[in-house]
Each structure stands twice: as C-alpha cells, then as structure tokens.
Amino acid sequence: MAVAQAKETVTEARLAGVHLPEGAGWITAAREGALARVRALGLPERRHEYWKFTRPDSLTAPAVPQAALYDDSDEPEMFGDVDRLRLVFVDGVFDPQASDELALEAVRVERLSEAGQRDIHWARDLYGVLEERGQTPVPRTLAALNTALASDGMLIHVTGRAAKPINLIYVHKSDSSDAMLHHLVKLDPGAELTVLEDGPAAARFNKVMEVEVGDGATFHHLRTQGRDHERRAATHVFARLGAQSVFKSFTMTANGVMTRNECVIELTGDDAIAHVAGAAMGDGDFHQDDTVFVTHDAERCESRQVFKKVLRNGAVGVFQGKILVKPGAQKTDGYQISQSLLLDEDSEFLAKPELEIYADDVACSHGSTSGAIDEDALYYLRARGIPKPIATDLLTLSFLAEAVEEIEDEGLRDEINTRLASWLERRRS
Amino acid sequence: MLEIKNLHVDLEDEDKTILKGVDLTVEAGKVHAIMGPNGSGKSTLSYVLSGRDGYKVTQGSATLDGVDLLDLEPEERAAQGLFLAFQYPVEIPGVGNLTFLRTAVNAQRKARGEEEMSAADFLKEVREKAKTLKIDADMLKRPVNVGFSGGEKKRNEILQMAMLAPKMCILDETDSGLDVDAMKLVADGVNALRQDGRGFLVITHYQRLLDHIKPDVVHIMSEGRIIKTGGPELALEVEKNGYEDLKSEVA
User: Which of A113, A118, A254, B243 could join B37 in a cystine, given CB atoms 3.0 to 4.6 angstroms apart?
Assistant: First the structure.
C-alpha cells in the first residue's frame, strides 16, 4: 500500500498539469499510449533495482534543478573542422536561423513539430515503437515520458549514402531549462549516415533517439555532452538492426553533475554488428551512468560494449551492461568491457555486467576492472624525462584508448583525443 | 662522470638489504660492464640510479657530473643526462611511439632550459636514427612497445637512447631475450653512440653481449658488492669458469 502510494506520488507529481503536444491522430495515439505506459510502469525511483547506483530524483522531479551556464569558448567549436549539416537546438527548441537548411542529398530531414501535424507519415511506424519494445524486460519510463511529452526533434529518413554527417548541436542558454527532444532515424536498406551530437542542451535534458537500421545499412553515432558542470541528462538510444547492418555509437562525457545514458539495441537480422562505446571523465561532483542492453535475436551477429571512465575527486561512474542472447541466436559474438581508472581513493566505480544466454553455440565474454595508474608504466615514462603530471595524463589517455579506438573515422577520433587531452591538461597538478 | 660511493640500499617494504656498499666510477668516454649472477643486485643498482620507487638508500651517494642523483625525481635524473635502457620495456597501449618520444625529448629540453624541437626537425631526426636500427615507419606509429617482439622492444630502447642523447647510459640486461642477429643490431646501435663525452654502464649476465659491445672495464658483482674489477679479459674468465670460482677466489 505504502509502496503503491509512493509510486503514484513521484509519477503523478511529475505529470500534474502536463499536456500532450498538439498533433495528428497517429502521433497523438502514440503519445497517449506512452503516457499510459508512464502511469502503468511508474517513473524510476531509488528503490528500483535498475536505479540502484544512480539517484533518479533530480531527473524525475517536477521542478528543474538550476544549472549554471558554462563558457567553453576556450576550446574550438566541436566538430568545427567537419563538413556537416548543422542543426541547432537552444534549450531544446530547434533554431532554424542558427541552422543549415534542412537539405541533404539522400536524406530527408523534418522537424517533429511539423511532421507530427501530418495525417500520413513514415514516422508513425517508428515513433515510440522501439521505445515501447525497450520497456521489457526492464522499464525505461523516462523514455516513455519523452515519447509522450516531447514536441521537438528531428525525423531523419536516409535513402542512400548521406553526403555528410548531420550534427545536432544542443545549446544551453537558460539556467533553468527543461528540454525534451525526440529524434527518429530511419535508414533504408544499404543507406549510410553519421550523426554527431554535441552540447549540454539544457539544465535538464531528456532525449530519445530511435534508430531503425535497415538491412545492409550503416549508422555511426558520435556524441559529446558538453562541458557544463551542473547540467543533468537522461538519454536513450533505441536501435533495431536488420541483417548485415552496422550500428556504431560512441559517447564522450566530460563533466555533468548527473548523466544517465541508456542504449538499447536489438539485433534482429543475421550478421549484424553493433558497437557501443564511451569515455567518461569526471572530476568532483560528477555522476555518470552508462546502461546498455543488447539483445541478440538473430544468427552470427557481433556486439561490443567498451566503456572507460576516469574518475577523480569523488566522481562516480556507473556501468550496467547486459548481453541477452535469445534462443536460436547461434554463433553470437558478444564482448563487453567496463573499466575505471580511479585517480584517488574518493572516487567510485559501480559496475553490473550481465550475460543471459539461451543459445548453445555462442562466444560471449565480459570483464570489469577498477584500478589506479600503472606504477611501472609511470616509472618508465618518467625515466625518459617526462614529468609526472604529463606522464599521468599520457597513461590516462592510454587507458581510454580502447574505447576511443571504437570511433572508426580517424579525423573524428583525433578530435575526441584532443578534447580528452585538453580536459586532462586543464586539471594538471 | 658517474660516481657511486659506498652505496647501501634496502628494499622499502621488506627488511632486506640488496646493495651492501657499491663503489664504482664510470669515466666519460668509457664503457664499463657489470657482470654477476642472478640476485647479485645488478638490476637494483640500475633502478636505484634511475629513481624507481621501492628502494631505500641507507648509506652512500651517487652523482652524475657532481650532481647528487639520489635527491632527484626520475624525470630530473633523465634531464641531467641519465638514461636506463630497460630489461623489460613497458607496453603503453594507445600512446603512439612517436608521440611518446617527442614528449620525452621536449620535456628534457624544457627542463634544461633549451628550445623545444619542432615537429619537422624531430621527424627528420627520428626517421634517420630509426633507419639505422631497422625500425620501420609502422613501428614508429604503433603504440609504445605494444605487439613488439623482444628484439623490437630492445631496438626501440636504443632508438630512445639515440634521440635523447644522454651523457650516461645504463643498459640493463639488454641482451636478454635476443637472438644473435638482434643482439648484433642492438650492439651496433650502442656502438654508434660511443663517443668521448658519454659513459656507458652495461649490465649483463653473460659475456656474449660484450663480444659486440667491447668494454674498457669489467666489474664482477656478487651479493650486493663489486668483488672484482679488471679489463675485458675478466669477462672471458667468467665465461670459462663461472661465477662460483671468482666468488671463492675473492673469499
């Protein structure tokens, strides 16, 4: 009785006074369905097993905790050297003036707020669909809340090989903004697209991206979450992969008082490949959680999860990763590694790696470690004349390398390495 | 150049004395060899000189051109011109060999108040030196020592030595794990660096390396002390009769 009341309290408090955005019949139906899911499942609470390591309060509270703006102009613009289609959102609202024209060869880009008004749209078969599938076996109610309430976002339909990456740029301008964005990416068979995301987005950001990767299609995703210290974010990527398709996602999280990044991947066609990786660096008041759920439901698919976290001055890193191999998903090749580098004794890494396998001919491995800087390597570098702080930074980058190497494009990989190095350099003691 | 006087060293974590009064002077332009059985303290001497943690100097001194080494951090000793070629070079994934080398070269220059080397000059020099050591472009680009064979690791040590141009080079069992061809390549690299202003201390268990790197002076170390010093013929004697004979002879 008391438990039921608590569930009602958190969820109903959040939903009090909210209205579903206006839209055509299909999207209204999707939003109403999502709202019903939120009520039925309840928003996350600390007592939920899936939120054991991360306090959801500030992500579910009706009031947005303030987040001071951060001036990051001491670094060049993220992805500034990349020829890309720039789409800018300010505190979660698309800004057409600041953005490039929504035109790209082999790609159709539309705004959710406009497409959602049309009676017939391809998005009907994707909007909230993968999110809903992702609610079992574990509820991800913040994503359902997003499906119900998000009024903006981009619908991206890729029919061939995109001429350049699409860059979703999230600008944070108000210290009390509460932003929700819901993006869809649909790749037709054989299509190819890279999506770059960067920026803190808002004081509190709830983002969902649903990605349908058609047979033989390739989707690359590279994300950085801005340098704002006080921002909070709960993000979900839901992906469904067709036969022989490729999905590769990398996230860099440096700073941020609260981040929960969930990635839910279903391999539904044979011979598909899914890689999810992340490098997180936290100093002080930092809580970063990667929660990944990969389901193998086809033969000969490969999945990799590679997550590395550098933590100092009491920063907290969390990893919850699961590989589920369904009956019949033979010849599955699953790999999962999560590691933390603890630069002092105040920092903390909490990891829950899980394998659940119902097929008999699979190769799955996982590992999770926490450690300090390797003293032998440190001595080696110092014996060559490299001062301890610089040697420590080099070894920190060395620790992160396995994750960063998951970025296929060399230019983008270099850019991320430069950012990681700058972050370390600013903290050099 | 390198002057070690009455050096006594304990292990920090255990109540164990490793070096029991080492006296040794290496003059500029000379190659000294230290030979000795396993556990005699040869490698400990190289670690203590280069500043590895875990050792406690209880007595004695070690100076390089008059500068007290034992008071300095490892990187400061390197900037003073001390170089240790490791017996087991460490693998550092994710850090390119060139990045590592350039960071080291420029850190030392900076510490000495010299101008840093430009990327172009550095590349030119490193390519030249790599070539003579048969280190190809791929090895230069790969992460430090990762996936290198035993011989490649040792050649990489010599490349670092060549680029850093130290005053005093210590080679710790550089011949271990090398076949004859690899040893010859490494020895050629070392010999190319022999010059008037530079001293060498070659630590080895076997005489065979000294066929290729001809020493001026040979010391025999046993149980934490240098028990005998002589010319190159001393190495041959060890090869022929073993260490036991020498030990009993001195005793």
Answer: B243
Can you tell me the distance from the alpha carbon of A275 to that of A293, in angstroms, rounded to the nearest whole number? 12
Residues in chain A whose beta carbon is closer than 8 A to a beta carbon of chain B? 374-377, 379-388, 390-391, 394-395, 397-402, 404-405
Taking the C-alpha atoms of residue A282 and residue A348, their distance in angstroms, rounded to an integer, is 11
Compute the Cα dihedral for A384, A389, A390, A395 and give only its sign: positive
**Residues of chain B neighbouring A390 (CB-CB closer than 8 A):** 103, 107
Asked if residue A267 is part of any domain, the answer here is: yes
Specify if A412 maps to a domain: no
Nearest-CA distance A341 → chain B (Å): 15
Q: What is the pLDDT along chain A (429 residues), one digit of tens a residue?
A: 455 565 568 999 999 989 999 999 999 999 999 999 999 999 999 999 999 999 999 999 999 999 999 999 999 999 999 999 999 999 999 999 999 999 999 999 999 999 999 999 999 999 999 999 999 999 999 999 999 999 999 999 999 999 999 999 999 999 999 999 999 999 999 999 999 999 999 999 999 999 999 999 999 999 999 999 999 999 999 999 999 999 999 999 999 999 999 999 999 999 999 999 999 999 999 999 999 999 999 999 999 999 999 999 999 999 999 999 999 999 999 999 999 999 999 999 999 999 999 999 999 999 999 999 999 999 999 999 999 999 999 999 999 999 999 999 999 999 999 999 999 999 986
Which one of A375, A382, A398 has the shortest CB-CB distance to B94? A398
Task: Return the closest-CA partner of residue B243 out of B233, B208, B46, B234.
Answer: B234
**Domain membership flag for residue A408:** no
Q: In 10 A of CB B138, how many CB atoms? A: 8
- Asked whether residue A131 is assigned to any structural domain, the reply reads yes
A310: three-class secondary structure by DSSP = strand
B86 contact residues in A (CB cutoff 8 A) = 380, 383
Q: Which residues pair with B171 in a beta bridge?
A: B85, B202
Flag if A398 and B95 touch (Cβ within 8 Å): yes
Which range marks the domain in which residue A294 is found?
Answer: 2-373
3-class DSSP state for residue A400? helix
ipTM, two decimals: 0.96
Q: Number of Cβ pairs closer than 8 Å across A and B? A: 83
Cβ-Cβ contacts under 8 Å, B74 against chain A? 379, 382-383
CB contact under 8 A, B73 and A379: no
Nearest CA in chain A to B94: A398
